What does this fold into?
Amino acid sequence: MDREGLEELFAPFAVVTVRRMFGGHGVYGDGLCFALEIDGDVYLKVDAETEAEFAAVDSRPFVYAARGREVRVGYWLLPTAAFDDEDALRRWASLALDAARRAAAERMAKRQRAGSRPVKKAAKRSARTPKVGRAGGSPSGRGPRDRTA
It folds into this structure.
């Protein structure tokens, strides 16, 4: 499916932005990626709140192979009914955008928590600790300076 096809598919839901991504497309609403198109299949963002709803219908997770193992990401196949039923499309796309919003809020909260941690001060070097590469006072660290030259 191309950019125009994705824009047309999601038109009953919202005006979306489509960007090339991973050999497919990312579909964005409100600046958040809530859908992927890979090899003609459309996947919607899921999280712990919505995954069971996708599993209960004819959906499956997006899985790819990396380093000899399968990697499962938080996107599930758009249920087939949503291609023909605008109400179904709106419902599933809304669930996906809500999951994307929750994921973005969680990332923001993690960043804020990480930013509020106190920064460790660098340990001060004692006057007795020699500087590496400066043995004997030579700038090159190869020994005492020859001051006779």
Summary: The two ends are 77 Å apart (CA to CA). Residues 46 and 74 are 5 Å apart (CA to CA). The longest strand covers residues 69-77. Strands lie at 17-21, 24-29, 32-38, 41-45, 61-66, 69-77.
